[in-house]
Amino acid sequence: MAGEEEGFQALIDEKDRLENEIARLMRFVTPSNEPCPDGRGFDARDAEFQLSGAQQTLACRQSEHMAVMEKVERALAALNAEAMLEAQPLPRCVDRRLDPRAVAVIGGISESSPAQAAGLLLGDEILSFGGVSLETMGDLDTCFAALKQHVDANVGSPLEVVILRGETPDRVVLQLTPEQWNGPGLLGCLLQRADAAQVTSYATDADGDSFG
């Protein structure tokens, strides 16, 4: 995990560098009320820059900043996901393929999270999440886009989650309420796309605890 943390810190350093440069360029291209030698209304201390060139550079840096922020968000999500997975007990694997109706698989659950409170377990296969399913959406890309919107739009409201669990498997219906808690996100679980998850599910005992 050390390599991922170093990569994340490098992204933060790049973000800070871009933000400092953007702030400097903003001061340069913003008209000033103070008179300056060339009369164009920008800080005379940076008169060696051409205004049009500075504006183009500013636009480029802002675009680069947006790209870096997207990388920061992805890297942070990956670090959180890895931390969740490291906290999970090693389950006993069951050699069977995922149900073709599955949208996602629970790949990690944080302690004291809304997902844990709802009763979700590692390896649960999500068939429907608040009405979002392959049957209603048609494909996984549309499902995952709708899932995020659905979660964000229903903070504090319980959503029905239909899952398949265990070796049989059993169909289980739970109520999961997206909400702010002492961890990242609104659910506190790692949802792996069904087409990206390993074709291994996890056995659970009668009390719902993972086997070691």
Describe this structure in words.
- This protein has 212 residues and is of the alpha+beta class.
- The chain has 2 domains: 8-31 and 44-86; 104-193, PDZ domain (Pdz3 Domain, Roll), CATH 2.30.42.
- It is 42% helix and 16% strand.
- It contains 5 helices and 7 strands.
- It has helices at 2-29, 51-87, 114-118, 134-137, 140-153, and strands spanning 93-94, 104-109, 125-129, 159-165, 170-176, 189-193, 201-202.
- It has a 5-stranded antiparallel β-sheet with strand order 5-4-3-2-6.
- Strand 4 (159-165) and strand 5 form a beta hairpin.
- Helix 1 (2-29) runs antiparallel to helix 2.
- 21% of the residues are buried.
- Residues 37-46, 87-95 and 198-212 have low confidence and may be disordered.
In short:
The chain has 212 residues and is α+β, with helices and mostly antiparallel strands.
Q: How is the biggest beta sheet arranged?
A: 5 strands, antiparallel
Distance between the termini: 23 Å
CATH evolutionary superfamily of the largest domain: PDZ domain
CATH topology of the largest domain: Pdz3 Domain
Our count of domains comes out at 2
Query: Which structural class is indicated by helix and strand composition?
Result: alpha+beta
Side-by-side strand order of the widest sheet: 5-4-3-2-6
Low-pLDDT ranges: 37-46, 87-95, 198-212
Query: Helical region count?
Result: 5
Shape: elongated
Mean pLDDT: 75
CATH architecture of the largest domain: Roll
Instruction: Please write the string of helix (H) and strand (E) elements.
Output: HHEEHEHHEEEE
Number of strands: 7
- Which radius of gyration do the C-alpha atoms yield? 24 Å
The CATH class assignment of the largest domain is Mainly Beta
Helix content: 40-55%
Strand content: 15-25%
